[in-house]
Amino acid sequence: MFSFLKKGLEKTIGSIVSSKPKDKKITKDVLEELLLEADVPFEIVEEIIYYLPPSNNVDRSDLSRVMQTYFLYDSKKTEAKPFVQMIIGVNGAGKTTSIAKLANLYKKDGKTVILGASDTFRAGAVEQLKAWATRLNVPIVATAQGHDPAAVAFDTISSAIAKGYDHAIIDTAGRLQNQKNLANELEKIVRISGKAMDSAPHQKILVLDGTQGNAGVAQAKAFHDIVSIDGVIITKLDGTSKGGALFGIARELELPILFVGVGEGMEDLVKFDPSEFVKTICDAIYLD
Question: Residue 82, class by beta-carbon neighbours within 10 Å (0-12 exposed, 13-18 middle, 19+ buried)?
């Protein structure tokens, strides 16, 4: 796990290491510069420094303790079968690929999975998810472009119940003509999912493009306002030096980061481990 996360944070680590003054202790001024370089939001950098002991030199254990407090949010637990996840996010964030990687992760764990192609708005979205379903050898419920996405979600969950699947993963549109249309569609999918199975979807997951850094927070808040997100997947972490933005995302949304994408391969979606994330950042800061 650690090697996967470290691989995903290589550019962030490089950014910190290259900005670190040679032969200097980690003072609060140096720490501020390094955290900002990694795209930790300014107000969070100021908070981290505020909660450190008064000494100007920063002890690693103190820094680690303070950083850990930004990742205390727990994911919703349920024993529901099927466990229904609704995947949300703008086009281009890596939503469809994340669904495929998530399905692959469940299959490796010996679980059965069915996909629901409820992004009937974007041209090619249904075909793209079908292609992944074929590659992964998992069933999919799909219809033609423009059909009712809530009906697809209902049919996916109903099929999962009838056939005893462990997981149902439902794709959704990332953009409609305007925000109100998108809000109405997502709210309807949630409502109709609940008719197919009580309390479904059990988890509404937002996919965020890690290369956007802190710019993704406003986007995340907009989706959160619409359907009350339960957790986040950060994609393309390996392609950015802005890994510090995860502090801002977790803090501003008060949500758990569930998974991170650390590469393009099917295996490159890993569960987010806050302690390993903080350790990796601290390793870079205190590298001799």
Answer: buried
Is 93 labeled as ligand-binding? yes
86-121 pLDDT, tens digit per residue, is 999 988 899 999 999 999 999 999 999 999 999 998
**Domain hosting residue 37, numbered range:** 16-73
Query: Is 96 within any annotated ligand binding site?
Result: yes
171 annotated to a ligand binding site = yes
Beta pairing, strands 257-261 & 269-271: antiparallel
Percentage of the residues of the chain whose pLDDT score is greater than 90 = 73
* 173 carries a ligand binding annotation: yes
Q: Indicate whether 113 and 221 sit together in one domain.
A: yes
Is 151 found in the same domain as 96? yes
173 and 225 housed in the same domain:
yes
Task: Please check if 95 is assigned to a binding site.
Answer: yes
Q: Based on the domain organization, do 64 and 199 belong to the same domain?
A: no
When divided into structural domains, the chain yields a total of: 2
* Residues 115 and 227 occupy one common structural domain: yes
Is 288 annotated for ligand binding? no
For the stretch 15-63, pLDDT in tens is: 999 999 887 789 999 999 999 999 999 999 999 999 999 999 999 999 9
Residue 8 lies inside a defined structural domain of this protein: no
Tell me: is residue 261 an annotated ligand-binding position. Answer: no
- The residue that leads in pLDDT, 138 or 264, is 138
Q: Is 91 assigned to a binding site?
A: yes
172 annotated as belonging to a binding site for a ligand: yes
In a domain, 39, yes or no: yes
| CATH code of 270's domain | 3.40.50.300
If phi > 0 it is left, if psi is from -120 to 50 it is alpha, else beta; for residue 59 that is beta
236 is in an annotated binding site: yes
d(CA 96, CA 118): 11
Asked if 278 contacts 68 with a C-beta cutoff of 8 angstroms, the reply is yes
Tell me, what's the pLDDT at 2? 47
Q: Please tell me whether 124 is known to bind a ligand.
A: no
